[in-house]
Amino acid sequence: MTAAPVRRLAAILIADVAGYSRMMEGDEAGTHARLREARSEVTDPAIARHGGRIVRTAGDGMLVEFASVVDAIACGLAIQKGMERHNEAVPLTTRMQLRIGVHLGDIIDEGGDIYGSGVNIAARIGKLAEPGSVYLSEEAQRQVVGKVEASFADLGDQALKNIPQPIRVWSAKPPPRVAAASRPATPAATPSALTETSNSPQATNSASPSAPDGVGTVSISSHPDGAEIFVDDKFHGNTPATLKIPTGSHSILLKFPGRADWRRTLEVLKSSKVTLRATLEPSR
Known about the structure:
By secondary structure, the protein is of the alpha+beta class. The protein contains 6 helices and 16 strands. Strands 1, 2, 3, 4, 5, 6, 7 and 8 form an 8-stranded mixed sheet that branches. Strands 9-16-10-13 form a 4-stranded mixed sheet, with no helix packed on it. It has a 4-stranded antiparallel sheet with strand order 12-11-14-15, with no helix packed on it. Strand 11 and strand 12 form a beta hairpin.
């Protein structure tokens, strides 16, 4: 006899791989092998250490349940740190970056499978997440402040697909690594065949450099379109794109197939709006 559905509160973590379809089109066997390796070496061990239960997987996606939202957030951060280390030996263009969403809410448990609004909200938050990041609902964030080693940035109310009311969303990131020595943040030399124009952060940022943690908006375009965007060596899709990026200094890399790369260092301030455009000049 099938057990009757039961409603209960749970912490839900949903993860998927950014750009997975693109990676599969380029190298199906290799991408599948790298996903299995990442699961066996990073995600599955982290979930086990933090007391999570993998409810189901589908392709690159994973649904995980936790009894504690503190454990769910700690697990998400551990996964992202583990993936960062895992990717150090992987070529830039084949690195896997996970998007993770976490929510604390009501679910329906039916024979071990779970569904309901709590799962739906976690899934939608995960779709908002930048590659390599952990996004969480305010319900989850209120329960974990001061209980996990992380800094939080308020991303404001977000309208999520098929969710009636806006959900306030936060990003969580672990404390930054302490570098042995710091290097001047200078842009790489721009190849002569490549020019760029931008609104400087100083001209467009309304916040001061001492503003608290938050996010800024960076619009990136190129001519021709379709350049791959990497922020701090993490894939963020193709141009044109508008990204929400946490405050601080970030490396922006555009990769043009068969042409020279373009890179610059950008200081993102809270509530700033910055426009970057890279243009390949015709060969002469």
